[in-house]
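hiii, so i know i said id send this last week but things got crazy w the move. better late than never?? heres the sequnce for the chain we talked about at the cafe, plus the structure i predicted for it. fair warning i was half asleep when i ran it
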Amino acid sequence: MTGATALYDLPGPKTRQRHTLYGVLSAVVILGLLAWILYLLFDTGQFTYTKWMPFEYKGIQELLLRGLGNTLKAFAIAAVLSLALGGLLAVGRLSEHRAVRWLATLVVEFFRAMPVLVMIFFIFVALKVQPLPALVAGLTFYNGSVLAEVFRSGINAVDRGQREAAYALGMRKTQVMTYVLVPQAVRAMLPAIISQLVVALKDTSLGYLITYEEFLHAGKLIASNLDYDLPFIPVVMVISPIYIGMCMLLSWFAGWVSRWEQRSPKTKAAEVAPAEPGTLLPSGGHPTGPTP
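okay and structure toks below
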């Protein structure tokens, strides 16, 4: 047995056999579940040409593309604003001023506890805001408050000695945050940031409840105008893979950014020439031997 770890003992032959058995049984169960779902779909005639023919029409394709474009537009705006709001609230929570810190904490805790749908409906109905701004505002307040905690936790996770060393060099707090803490915390925060952005992308589907013409709303319009049984199933089978693909693409992009940062560090070690006999001291004098 080689390659011992500090976290756990490597499994022995019997344990590896059990793990293999568990993996095979899990795969069989998942394949059986998928086969059962496919059987139900074929049994109800969900793959007949009649139910998929409407997607050949140019009008339906344009409706889906327009809905997808509106979804991406809402997500892009909400993602940028959420990152900005999260950074601002994180700075407030890390402030040395007690009033600012308490105010930022109150805002973060309030919007984290408030359901996204309630905020969207309140902004849309009570404040009479248009669908797109109402959807973006609700997503921004919720995801921004969550990202604020992610940023704060990531910065606090950096070793305290890094901060103390920066202050010892005479750097101001803004410089310490910009040049020392944030660059080191980004790699640790990146998975949580991307996970929250995926949540924001999926939550854009709530826009159909306030008549925003996003991707899910387009699918609902298509299904409500089809005249056969269970019209929503083909529509869901078209929309779901696209949503999954967008989330997977976002996760892949996060992995690519992480690998790029590892290949391109911000600083490189400076080469120092080895010391040689007779090297001049910084004051310009020659080294002297020990006094007898």
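btw Residues 1-7 have pLDDT under 50 and may be disordered. thought thatd interest u
miss u guys!!
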